[in-house]
Amino acid sequence: MLERYSLAPMKDLWTWKAQYERWLEVELASLSALEKLGLIPQGVTLAVKTKAKINIERIHELEKEIGHDLIAFLWALEEEVGEEGRWLHFGLTSSDVKDTALALLLRDALTLIQEKVERLKAVLREMALAGKKIPILGRTHGQWAEPTTFGHKVLVWYDELLRVEERLCRAKDGICVGKLSGAVGTHAYFPPEAEELALKALGLRPCAAATQVISRDRHAEVVFALASAASLVEKIALEVRHLSRAEVKEVEEGRPEGSSAMPHKRNPILSERLCGLARVVRASVEPILESGALWHERDMSHSSVERILLPQCFLIVDYMLDRGEKLLRGLRIYPETMRKHLEEALGLPFSEGLLLALVRAGMERKAAHLLVAELCEEAERERKPLWEVASHDSRVLNYLSAEEIRSIFDLDRVLRNVEASFARVFPSGYNPSCDD
Question: Dihedral, CA atoms, 99, 101, 105, 110, nearest 10 degrees?
């Protein structure tokens, strides 16, 4: 499914090599902090940094032997470093290194996601402004509703993406914490001063309080932010699917797929794929949330969940944002078909305007509602425009002139306030005349 898409550089963040490099980065920062405070001999950090080599094959060999990944990593480093290697991991526990390294990973991964969001934002803004005055049938419950514009439809997506962006920023800020406080978080053998120095060097800040692990609500917030991004891409893709149905065909994927049996088919497979992938990401929120409740100061129940779901979610959302942008950039839009469907709707999308005009002219609302509903049924049955049916009904003519009736069905009048939404979403520097 994803083989046609290059997952680098996101994929590169989740390799064994990248993991061990981050572990080493945390170990070196910890050594440097201890050295600055005079708690270990001077020159240790430089010696370890100079001699340390990550031998993935040897780490895995040792892990098979002892059944502990972090110990295997340390033993393999000691073999490379020699005497100074005894100071590695001094006063730390495994989760100090793993959780802090994971924070570095998630920070970098979220940065890549944010870059994809920026690109999607750009194409949505462009589409919203370009389609601002393209009228289209609004649909609610799959039925004709009132007229809207294609640009307003896209504007709603853009506005939601701004909130997705805010969630990603909050999640990134929340996860940019480290923890170098020992086996139960009490700094028994690694002092708070050293933790602050080491984490500052890594571009992180200390957890105010931690057990053996960083609290998992931070990681849950990250996954929820990713799920909200995936859900928005699905929302866009689902609309594309509906609007590209054969009986609608107001838009179409730039490269729809055919059928092995039916040569006429133009299937929106990319949109369908994006909708399916969103389900996988959303399904990850519950197990990540459940990872917050651990036995006492720590157990291992969260670890297996995160090893699967974190890379999976990031890789999928990275793909979805990339393909969502490409879907929109290649989207074929048919304004003529949109207008044609508006005309074929027999004026029914303007029924509220007729209802309100009758109320304004003095008719009771209940009576007006029942009357307009009756006229709409007649228009559909007789295949006549609603304005024409209304213009020949004496009950309407008792309240409205023919000219007043006709003005109700003026499309420009109904859409006159769409501009206000654009001004709200683009509050600074928005010049409508420049975007026509």
Answer: 50
Tens digits of per-residue pLDDT, 63-108?
A: 999 999 999 999 999 999 999 999 999 999 999 999 999 999 999 9
Residue 90: closest CA among 209, 180, 210: 180
pLDDT class of 7 with cuts at 50, 70, 90: low
Residue 47: predicted pLDDT: 97
The overall pTM is greater than 0.85: yes
pLDDT band at 436, cuts 50/70/90? very low
Which of 11, 4, 6 has the alpha carbon at shortest distance from 311? Answer: 11
Name which CATH class applies to 348-408.
mainly alpha
CB 74 within 8 A of CB 88: yes
- Domain residue spans in the chain? 11-87, 94-335, 348-408
| Integer Cα distance of 351 and 94 in angstroms | 67
Catalytic residues: 141, 259
- For tokens 């059944």, the residue is 67
Sign of the torsion angle spanned by Cα atoms 418, 422, 424, 430: negative
The secondary element (H helix, E strand) that includes residue 147 is strand 143-149
Query: What is the CB neighbour count within 10 angstroms for residue 31?
Result: 25
CATH number of 11-87: 1.10.275.10
Which H or E element spans position 138? strand 135-140
CA 270 – CA 323 distance, rounded (Å): 8
- CATH architecture of the region 94-335: Up-down Bundle (1.20)
**Spatial distance between the Cα atoms of 393 and 400, rounded to a whole number of angstroms:** 10
